[in-house]
Amino acid sequence: MNLSIGIVGLPNVGKSTLFNALVKGNLAEASNYAFTTIDPNVGVVEVPDERLAELAEIEKSGKIVPATVKFVDIAGLIRGAHKGEGLGNQFLSHIREVDAIAMVVRDFRDDKIVHVENKIDPKSDIETVLTELALADLGSIEKKKSEIEKLARSGDKKSKKILEAIEKILQALESGKPASTANLSEEEKDLIREFNLLTIKPIIYVFNVDESNCSENPADLVEEYELADFVGKDQTIVISAKIESELANLSDDERKEFLRDFGLDESGLERLIKLSYKTLGLITFLTAGEMEARAWTAERGAKAPEAAGKIHGDFEKRFIKAEVVGYDDFVKFDGWNSAKEAGKVRIEGKDYVVKDGDVVYFRHG
Fold first, then answer.
1. Which helix (H) or strand (E) holds 44?
2. What is the secondary structure of 28-42 as a DSSP string?
């Protein structure tokens, strides 16, 4: 699956600077004025995974193919975006196309970079963006309601169920809460998926801080700015876009030393991707052989045939069985053959739930 994350926020909070650092290039223009980004910039980033190099060495693989994440740098939102202010309608449509939202929140001080509201106030910034997303959803869902009501009155059973879901969503939005809090059943979530609501998407809050604060605990910022009512501590991450920009041009050894100087074990990119996987409920399973060592992304809870389908649709349709060994055992016993001799390779059927770090060989018709 191709995971996509939209980088959003108010103008001049460091979105494009962070995006350029993530994709290790200057694809997005970063300037000190609002609406520098109009058309979204898109960059595909490899997911760091040290396990692949180990697998490739053991299996003498010809190449390494990591999983990827697509980042979309979306123009800054302002108050009134839901009504079209600041090209708001165009920007909101870009957000509808991504799987998750990374909301960049400015928490750095720089007199040379103008804040669109002339103050550094993370709580106010977050509330502004969330309000615009909610108002956009409210307008969208009210239009859908009119259409669905006509079908429901004609006796269409599916439309009646959709209408019940819409009522739950409206109740949440009208009380100032996102659609994700509407307590929808799994069936209702599937029924309204085509509406592509903004506030039902998972949100990661990225605090863009000064270099001196890059190792700060995100939970402390949630407490400091009194955000606990609408921002979960496990939804937040602290990044210095300036540091990430400098890291982008360093070798691996230089990067490690640079991070140690700031008291960090890993880059902001690595932490953001890990949090994105967790937020979206994703796992990585692995394949390894002479041709390649490769990482694949699947939803947590995916069964073997579904995971096989990530490799090729026919693998899912013609699934027979899966040979599975945990990554640690694969490395410990030096590959497939020795792991099989040690009894560590399991034969799993259609009901097997694939786990993160599974090394898998799918057999199919």
1. strand 41-46
2. S---SSTTS--SPEE
What are the chain's domains? 301-364 (3.10.20.30)
Q: List the one residue out of 23, 81, 217, 251 whose CA is nearest residue 15.
A: 23
Is the CB of residue 242 less than 8 Å from the CB of residue 211?
yes
Residue for token pair 């969503």: 169
- Name the helix (H) or strand (E) containing 282: strand 282-288
292-299, strands of its sheet edge to edge: 63-65, 292-299, 282-288, 358-364, 319-326, 346-348
Each residue's pLDDT tens digit, 63-93 = 999 998 888 888 766 665 445 444 444 567 7
pTM to 2 decimal places: 0.83
| 6 marked as binding residue | no
279 is in an annotated binding site: no
The answer to whether 15 is a known ligand-binding residue is yes
> Which is higher by pLDDT, 20 or 289?
289
- The predicted-structure confidence for 8-40, as pLDDT tens digits, reads as follows 888 888 888 888 888 775 444 443 333 344 456
User: Which of 327, 314, 322, 323 shows the shortest CA–CA distance to 356?
Assistant: 327
Q: Which residue has the tokens 């003498």?
A: 60
User: Contact, 268 vs 239, CB < 8 A?
Assistant: yes
Q: Is 13 among the annotated ligand-binding positions?
A: yes
Amino acid, res. 288: A
